[in-house]
Automatic annotation (TrEMBL):
Protein name (database record): Acyl-CoA reductase
Matching InterPro entries: CoA_reduct_LuxC
One annotated GO biological process: bioluminescence
Organism from which the protein derives: Pedobacter psychrotolerans
An MF annotation (GO) of this entry: acyl-CoA dehydrogenase activity
UniProt cross-references to Pfam families, sorted A to Z: LuxC
Keyword line: NADP
Amino acid sequence: MSVLTQEKAIIAFKTLGKKLAHPTDVLGDSIYQVQNSNAWFTLENIEKAILSFSEMLNDADVDQWFETIQFTSSAKKIGLILAGNIPLVGFHDVLCVLATGNIALIKLSSSDDKLIKTIISELIAIEPAFTDKIEYVERLKDFDAVIATGSNNSSRYFDYYFSKVPNIIRKNRNSVAVLDGTESQEDIHNLGADIFDYFGLGCRNVSKLYYPKGYDIAKFYEGIESYQNIINHFKYQNNYDYNKSIYLVNMAKHFDNGFLLLKEDEQLTSPLAVLFYQEYEHLATVENELAAQAENIQCIISKADISLPKFQFGESQHPKLWDYADNVDTVQFLNKLA
């Protein structure tokens, strides 16, 4: 077995990026297994996730990213507890561990236990030296550090169980959009992708909308009209119907366009098929509120004049290699272990 070097890793990542540009060729017959194992993993969403990683692993970005990476000669065993809320959501952590020359002990989510294996098999086929750097485990043991992603409840368990080793523990986060009223219909259409991609199940999906007082909500609904087919997915429709019935029974004020409910609420985390909203008078008030909630926010999507880091409309599910979850630099964390 050949030894993995940084040069080999760089070439392999670039080659994988090019292969992932053709999702159907990569998946082959495994696509049926993936779809049948998780009803949320539709062909459209699987291909979307794969193409997102293809974009991420473009030649220029791979080169730029590796400039920040110290490839270790004394590999550490990094336990990875992956989430499975959307396709391939844990794959970036795998890439970070492999890019630094460490060994990935992968605890897959039962919701995404086939797709990630398929993509990793492609990477090993490109560069067999990765074989010794990857191990699938049912239970983590003999690890030097841990990166674990879960809910707020599971994070308490993770904090306790992994407290004696270096760790990154991720909790629930949500993304928000801030409108200032100057948005075009194209902007709102693009925002629809931030809301509806992967049925809104990801932490990078918008679950809360801020807009100025007097804003015509009809403009928002007109801009997202092309996403109406999402209601044809039975699991999404079940959530829509359930939440709508709750609001009707409780006589709770809400807006409804037939596939997305809008309800005024100060919380960030909205139920599936619901988008919480909040009106504001002064943009500075929103900025201060978001700054105070920074630990609970993954992305801010806006073109408004705010000083906080933000994504353009439609870009929340297209992160760069260096757009780390929870704004915690995973590579820097792994570099320090060396």
